Amino acid sequence: MVEPRPAVRLRPNVAAQPLRWGAPWIWADQLVLDRRTRAIPAGSLVELQDAERRPLGLAAFNPGSKIAARMLDADPAAAVDRGWFGARLRRALALREALYEAPFYRLVHAEADGFPGVVVDRFGDAAAIQPNAAWAEVLLDEMAAALREATGVSTVVKNGSGRARALEGLAEETLVLSGALAGPVEVPMNGAVYLADLTGGQKTGLFYDQRPNHAFAARLARGRAMLDVFAHVGGFALAGLAAGARSALAVDGSAAALELAEGGARASGVADRFATRRGDAFDVMAALAAEGARFGLVVCDPPAFAPNKAAVEAGLRAYERTARLAAALVEPDGFLVLCSCSHAADLTRFREASLRGVGRAGRSAVLLHTGFAGPDHPAHPFLAESAYLKALFLRLGA
Amino acid sequence: MVEPRPAVRLRPNVAAQPLRWGAPWIWADQLVLDRRTRAIPAGSLVELQDAERRPLGLAAFNPGSKIAARMLDADPAAAVDRGWFGARLRRALALREALYEAPFYRLVHAEADGFPGVVVDRFGDAAAIQPNAAWAEVLLDEMAAALREATGVSTVVKNGSGRARALEGLAEETLVLSGALAGPVEVPMNGAVYLADLTGGQKTGLFYDQRPNHAFAARLARGRAMLDVFAHVGGFALAGLAAGARSALAVDGSAAALELAEGGARASGVADRFATRRGDAFDVMAALAAEGARFGLVVCDPPAFAPNKAAVEAGLRAYERTARLAAALVEPDGFLVLCSCSHAADLTRFREASLRGVGRAGRSAVLLHTGFAGPDHPAHPFLAESAYLKALFLRLGA
How far apart, in whole angstroms, are the C-alpha atoms of residue B142 and residue B30? Predict the structure, then answer.
């Protein structure tokens, strides 16, 4: 039995059909928000109804978020308990087990895995949950218990950092919920070993989304000198070295990230070909150009320059500048990899800005490959347009 | 010394700047086409000039084609001889040798490799040239000689089939230019062996462009029963079987293609798990559904349903229908791969049509991966928008 749930209703002019077809989000301005509904606590489970009070399903409600309701279940009376979490986790797990040999992957990618606003990354015997929607914060203990049961992980971390939580009115908080962490975790990927600090927050964690792009760049790296700009914990550089790059120089502004990259290079057995330089990426690229340094492969994986619509134009200028500075460092016939993790800059505009930057460096280019986030980051069909991660693989001319 | 070349001029209102930046094509309505220029034989090399008669470079001219001129060289006096071909071929070869272990790939992908309108596929010791622009037809012998020199191949085939040649006013003609072919060629790819009939034309040749998509599907195929619709010579099916698919059924309308697929299955050592069914793909899918057949992985790689702008709406309906019929054949939690090789249907519209078809089959889906043509099919930066090959990898629900 489930306790009676409050009802929340669509406004009369809002079409219910997309929700019946699987649309995952209901915006605040699509709902009747009166004194009663505004008083429903953030994270409550509600029965979503169309304007004629016909049930549409079970939703997670947050009157303080622009995404005021998120569809959880087509059955408005579904019990969201350990069994419910377990069934969804097992389905998510089956996909990852079909895709990967070893238990290192994004296990839950939010809406596409039936966990709106929730991300779970698995690192072997440990997992990190990001409850980026209010309902998941409320039900976190139940979810963590189901996660331990479904996967057998012993250590579960709550990673409560990042922009998304603020939009839901949630505070930053990162802590170990169960088990223990003795320092950074070793993560095998693409033939290299990375170090991920699961409690150090975004700056020193690990992003699985770039895995196929690391792999593609590694193919191009064999026998070449490689420059990895915005290197973070060495995602591209270590995969390239493991595949036979002659050398790799990793550039990042964070000393903590570069320290983990160095530890990863040692764990991967490639430390003798690996070097780091700490500093502002633009400054370092300009300095390298002035030194006459050239590389057979240059990778730039910057933070989101266009995180939202207001920032798109400035963001595209930053991508163009990145491309211009990076292209100048590429040997004749060498390779350039340019990444964007900006939702708001779509593939076409990102590609245009990148090619413009390459052209302004006086270099010709052809596009070898366009990569996105790996398949452990599935896209919900109603959100597929918003693929945030793009990687362009270019071969430059003389 | 180069003989004096005729000059062809841009119309006064046509901007020359894109051509200086690398735009590869000049449309007939952008050129001054008078009695003199119309009399220049198709395939001639001309000096392209801006409206003020300043030279823009060397172009291949065809007054009978919509693409009336194609940029060949920034130097209007460049000698297009064996040395010129050789330099471009060696540069194209260096890229493929960086990408692949074995000499089986698209060696020349037209504009992006500096050979406007020309495609060369390499099959070990043999190569097939598609001279799909008039200039390449004129210079074919020189190009073939340079190809033998640069790569060491002994057998060179002219493949003069396909739609593109008609647009240039070229007749169909396929013949062996040098060396000899003793039946179909064995092509190792993704752990399987394919048979390619280089003189049998499009229906029985081999397409390298799907290689990374074959590889991604093969990852999903392990332990599953697989259905490969529009199977051609077994591209997806044989890669899936080599990766451990439980079984594969290949459906195609061409008996010749299925015979090559069966030969490939024997050469790959997977014939005991491979079956074929000849027939119209839509009829066979409907029949399989009626029989209650279900598969863990279904792949549809149809011919271009939307080959040009006029055919887009009908083409999108055909893609939707394909998706609907195919989705009905996928097991709960199984995978569906939908491909389009239509220039005119862009990724967004193809994805929408596909997801609509899946929804009409009553199935939910998430998008795992979007694949394009492999990196031996580089895109020219001015033509990057027109990426023709798209592959959507979906996981369906219950």
Answer: 30
Closest residue in chain B to residue A224, using alpha carbons only: B98
Sort out which chain A residues have CB atoms less than 8 A from B379's CB and list them: 366-367
CA–CA dist B379, A354 (Å, integer): 14
Could you say which residues of chain A have pLDDT below 70?
1-3, 201-204, 386
> Which residues of chain B lie closer than 8 angstroms to A351, CB-CB?
384
pLDDT above 90: percentage of residues in chain B: 88
Q: C-alpha dihedral over A168, A173, A174, A178, to 10 degrees?
A: -90
- ipTM value, please give it: 0.95
Q: How far is CA A313 from CA A317, A338, A356, B157, B378, in A?
A: 6, 18, 14, 50, 28
SS3 string of A268-298? CCCHHHEEEEECCHHHHHHHHHHHCCCEEEE
Helix axes B347-360, B312-327, angle to 10 degrees: 40
| Encoded tokens for B387 | 């990426």
Given a cut of 90, is residue B398 above it in pLDDT? no
Cβ of B366 within 8 Å of Cβ of A355? The answer is no
The partner residue sitting opposite B381, judged by closest CB among A99, A367, A384, is A367
Residue of chain B minimizing CA distance to A381: B366
Instruction: Determine, for residues A351 and B99 on separate chains, whether the beta-carbon distance falls below 8 Å.
Output: no
pLDDT digits (tens, 9 = 90+) for A329-375: 999 999 999 999 988 889 999 999 999 999 999 999 999 999 999 99
Using a CB-CB distance cutoff of 8 angstroms, which residues of chain A are in contact with residue B113? 366
pLDDT digits (tens, 9 = 90+) for B180-215: 998 999 999 999 999 999 987 555 678 899 999 999
Q: Do A395 and B220 touch (CB under 8 A)?
A: no
Nearest Cα residue in chain B from A93: B333
